[in-house]
From TrEMBL:
Keywords: Membrane, Signal, Transmembrane, Transmembrane helix. The chain crosses the membrane at residues 42-61. The keyword Signal applies. Residues 1-26 form the signal peptide. This is Arabinogalactan peptide 16. InterPro entries: AGP16/20/22/41 (IPR009424). It comes from Brassica rapa subsp. trilocularis. The lineage of its organism: Eukaryota, Viridiplantae, Streptophyta, Embryophyta, Tracheophyta.
Length: 73
């Protein structure tokens, strides 16, 4: 009987502890704000694209004005 009472007491204690623990942490977190773009990433992407275009144009134009007899294609 003593063993049965201690098991029942332990089960009751565990249940009460679980309920109290869940109530203690019942605070909800505020939702995170939606990500917004201030345009800097768009501007940076355009800048990279323009740099690539300038690099390609440089490599296309350079063989035309080079003094060597190498052909581009």
């Amino acid at each position: 009987m003593a063993s049965r009472n201690s098991v029942a007491g332990f089960a009751l204690f565990t249940f009460v502890f679980a309920v109290i623990s869940s109530l203690a942490g019942a605070q909800t977190l505020a939702p995170a704000p939606a990500p917004t773009s201030d345009g800097t990433s768009i501007d940076q992407g355009i800048a990279y694209l323009l740099m690539v275009v300038a690099l390609v144009l440089t490599y296309l134009i350079h063989p035309l004005d080079a003094s060597s007899s190498l052909s581009f294609f």
